[in-house]
Amino acid sequence: MAPFKALLQLSFLLTSSIAQVAAHQQPLADSRLAINGIQFATRAYWMRVANQALSDLVSPCPFGAFGTAIVNHTSGEGLGELVCIGANSIGSTGNPTLHGEIAAINNCTSVLTSPTGPYNLTASQAQTAFKSLSLYTNAESCPMCASAIRWAGFKEYIYGTSIDTLIEKGWGQIRIASADVFAASYDLSAATRLMGEVLTNETDPYFAWQYDPEYACPAGCERQMLPCLTVLMRATQGLITGHDLQLISQISNLQYLLEKKSPVDANDVDLECPGQHQSAKQGIGSEGYLDRYDLIETLVNRSYLRSTPNRM
Ligand SMILES: [Zn+2]
Fold this sequence. Notes:
disordered C terminus; alpha/beta; 43% helix
């Protein structure tokens, strides 16, 4: 019996592997089709609202440019009705779970149940209401958010930029496609229709500039020099964090070098803050005077860089 059992196990493993490969090859419907009777122009309108949520709630080009709009397409004719928006709120709250989608689900829960709001639903009614709503997000949800979307039972889930594109643009991702999360959620009663890569010509630019110094910021935005000053200030206090290293990518090639192989040679790193280096020095004052060598030394001390650069 033992060899037969082993053969069965092998057969199961092979079947699982094939299933996983197949899941990654699941095709998406063409994003311009009229799925559920809703025209592409309407989908594009709401994807633009998801992009606009960044300006409305954070800034025209935040580093984590993940925006969401939650819409009721069942309330009548026309475009449908906006219930709430949300944007990545980790930076403003410190809550690491507040991706754009989770922030929007929280916002909509408040809107739906507020006694002074337009819906004034009970908790139970709000739970039911989510099953009629469509969630638009300008980038494909991570597995946490895709799972939340399935737990909520949304009627539709529409994303712009794919996880594959985010990875290509330098973003760290948990590499499980939404289609795979959805495929594994068959125990849940409510079905959610998935539509992917909608209006990517407008969503992709929001995620293409953060790790690519050569890529222009989205329309209406400029790269901010303030993070550079912030990093310099923190470096004087020995408080360089992983988030600072993200910010440094906006002002130098350090992030690129760190990603290649860490630690890197400090002499390869250019840590100038364009246009604000002088004011950064002035802002810190004589006691906390800092130049690129001080910053690099701080990074060396914290094992981000290999060697102390030669002072010129
Ligand atoms: Zn997420």
